[in-house]
Amino acid sequence: MNRNEISVTVKLFAFFRENRFKQQEQTFPATITVREIVQRQGIDPEEVGVTMINSRHCTLDQTPVQGDQLAIFPVIGGG
Amino acid sequence: MAEQIYRVNMTNLTTSTEPVPDKWMGLGGRGLTSTIVADEVVPTCHPLGSKNKLVVAPGLLSGTVAANSGRLSVGAKSPLTGTIKEANAGGTAAQMLAKLGCKALIIEGLPKNDIWYTLQISKDGVTIQEEKELIGKGNFAVVAGIGKRTSAKHGVMTIGPAGEMKMLSANISIKDPDSHLRSSGRGGLGAVMGSKKVKCIIIEPTDAKVEIVDQEKFKEANRTFTKALVDNPISQALGTYGTNVLVNIINESGALPTKNFTGGQFDGHEEISGETMHDIIVEREGKPRHNCHKGCVIQCSQIYNDKDKKYKTSGFEYESIWAMGADCCVDNLDHIAEADHLMDDIGIDSIETSVAMGVAMEGGLLAFGDGEGICRILREDVGKGTPLGRIIGCGAGSVGRAFGVTRVPVVKNQAIPAYDPRAIKGMGITYATSTQGADHTMGYTIATNILGVGGSVDPLSQEGQVELSRNLQIATAAIDSTGMCLFIAFAALDDATCLPALVDMINARFGADLTAEDVTNLGISILKTERAFNEAAGFTSKDDRLPEFFYEEPIAPHNVVWDIPDEELDKFWNF
Ligand code: SF4
């Protein structure tokens, strides 16, 4: 990993886990957006309901930094 | 069939049917139970005394083919909170009562001697019979016993031992299409039924149909409505993972109350999550998808089997799993399922009782994480009514008082459910201001605070929370009157065709001409009626507050306290 790269812990939930993983550390270019990370998992950003960086909601345009935890949820609900 | 009010007087054991008074005509479900309680119950009365009344009402659309319209409302003055109360549930009873033409059932008075009764409801009205065989029995045995006595098709509403013993968290169970149970859980309505010595209510099946003024319009509106529900991605996720899909997202957001509300994340969250539950259900040949009444197209319920692939529980909800799980630190889903089954059988609210267990754990009764210990206490103490069991059966507040614990998560003496108000502030507004004590379903701000449904409001900010909670509480009061399951709200918030179709169905059913605004006004008037009852019972805005520890103890990971000023809270009622 060089200075232009970051490592991010990616967490997936509900059916996003099917044929993927629950949690994985991945390396990305430092300028990557949440949207691009979503796409790299083979997930259509349209299907994404909620994303959080370090337990705070974030937008798809946000750029994570080294060591962040990114959680990606499909559209879900309950109550 | 013309609708009527069925009235039962348990003091002199008489029954009658009455025409529906004009002022109750356009009401159903919660709107009707709350209006009747406000009209007929002395607000200061003892909830377990002769002046309280138990009111049962199907929703405005119950009994029709409208999707998801089979919810039944039960109301009274709550013995747990002292406020007005409405709790609704699925099962077959709402549809059956509506088809019999029963607009509402009002049970009043108290028998003079120590004799138990069963009520039997048919198209001719209500009859009262002495009950011996089923007294002391758990809910599953009651349902089986009634099935033998009558038929598997008869509807049943019943109380378990908790209701017979008038425990303040006792619920009322309603038989579902598979002879399992759904419950009107919160606020101790089972104790009110027990105080009136009514063990169960049996409803006769009928071929009669609910009258619909404009069939064609109704069908078309229902088609649009059903499509909006089925197409909604949230409905689809609910069908796969149940409401328990929330464990992981609420944990991730740092708002999953853990170890009696001392933390916001639970190490064992994966073990009790909806994802894990789904895999267990499939592996044990249960059903991930199941409906609590005929006509539900969302199917958030499920059948959870034990290790031997035998039925253990259904309607296994996020809030119950959170309470027994994270709040008591139990990370074993089978222990939680066993506890859920026991609570269904004993007939006690699974949120109140589990939060009470968390408080008892802090008080030193048993270790956090001891799932087997919880099941033992449920079986041997709560179910049998030992002094300890009665303390637990009277809820979290009761346990806090008995064990000298000050960290007691209740509002108006009702346990706070699965979302920490410090980390999701909209929810705190709902807990504080709800007319019925802490209850997430009264104004489910999670939709907007966490799930991004109906817009988004930052859960940690003070901004916009009062307005969010107010709008949702108004809408919820209206939806609770239609007989609709609240989970239609996700489609209603996101799909512009959903609500107009719902209003069209109500209009087609009654030949009415309501607008969306009329429906909002209905919600407003229900909240105001409920609030007025509470004020007359002695409640003031000082009761619309969260417990002290939320103001003082920061919760990890966000290290936030409850910081919405009291004046802000009081603005809730400015409408
Ligand atoms: S979505 Fe769930 S609670 Fe609602 S009607 Fe269907 S099964 Fe019952």
Give a quick set of tags describing it.
heterodimer; A: 79 residues; mainly beta; Ubiquitin-like (UB roll); 37% strand; B: 575 residues; alpha+beta; Aldehyde Ferredoxin Oxidoreductase,  A, domain 1; 6-stranded mixed β-sheet; 23 helices; 40% helix; globular; binds iron/sulfur cluster
What does this structure look like?
The complex is a heterodimer of chains A (79) and B (575). Chain A has 79 residues and is mainly beta. Chain A has a single domain (5-74), classed as Ubiquitin-like (UB roll) (Roll). Chain A has one helix spanning 34-40, and strands at residues 5-12, 23-29, 48-53, 56-57, 69-74. The model of chain A has no long low-confidence stretch (mean pLDDT 95). Chain B has 575 residues and is an alpha+beta fold. Helix content of chain B is 40%, strand content 15%. Chain B contains 23 helices and 17 strands. Chain B has helices at 29-40, 93-99, 139-149, 161-164, 189-195, 215-231, 233-241, 246-252, 274-283, 318-327, 333-346, 350-362, 371-382, 387-393, 396-403, 425-433, 446-449, 465-482, 488-494, 498-510, 516-536, 548-552, 566-570; strands at 4-9, 14-19, 53-58, 72-77, 84-89, 102-108, 117-122, 125-130, 155-158, 172-175, 181-184, 198-203, 287-290, 301-305, 311-314, 410-411, 414-415. In chain B, the strands form 4 sheets. Chain B has a 6-stranded mixed sheet with strand order 2-1-6-3-4-5. In chain B, strands 8-7-12-9-10-11 form a 6-stranded mixed sheet, with helices on both faces. In chain B, a hairpin with a 2-residue loop joins β7 and β8 (125-130). Chain B starts with a strand and ends in a 5-residue tail after the last helix. Chains A and B meet through β3, β4 and β5 of A and α7 and α8 of B. Bound molecules: iron/sulfur cluster (SF4). The site of iron/sulfur cluster (SF4) has 12 residues of chain B, from loops. Iron/sulfur cluster binds at residues 68, 90, 291-293, 296, 298-301, 485, 487 of chain B.
